[in-house]
Give the backbone structure.
Amino acid sequence: MSPGGDMEKEKQDFPKSEKVRKKSEIDRIFRTGARFSSRGMALRVAPNSLVRNRVVFITVRSFDGAVRRNRAKRIAREVWRLNKARFRQGFDVAVILYPGYEDFPVCSALILALLRKAGLVE
């Protein structure tokens, strides 16, 4: 593989260091973060002291079944992974997903629109 190919792969991975994992960190995002919402999705955005963004994907309880809930999270993670190079850095983001928007193009449009509204898309 060419060096450029390695660089491209490096930009599009999704390591654990880019995920919000601790409950205390998630609570901080909800307590201090700005809220942005649209039909089918909401964001909470809080600045962090890092040089990168971190994200957590949360589904509401009204999802009817693990398969749909996990698919929605998988699609949202993929949208984030493919577009993260376009985002301003230094924020923790919680993406709250509601049922009915598990389609990739719809999810992609909603996430990008909310991130634009939050001022995170460069």
